[in-house]
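Example: DUF1482 domain-containing protein.
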Amino acid sequence: MFGLFLMVCSAMNCQFEPYGYIYPDEINCLVDRELLVSEGKVAECYPVDAIIRANN
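Written out as structure tokens, the predicted fold is:
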């Protein structure tokens, strides 16, 4: 599994935060990453070992 992460910057620092999508393979993640990059956003695909669901 791969997760799509978007770089978010504040006044003090920048960090990658989950963009909310999990992909079964790297290829699908890279396709969506390229779409974000074409919009001028910084995104990366990283391996994900597990998913913890949040109770909202």
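The chain is about 25% helix and 40% strand.
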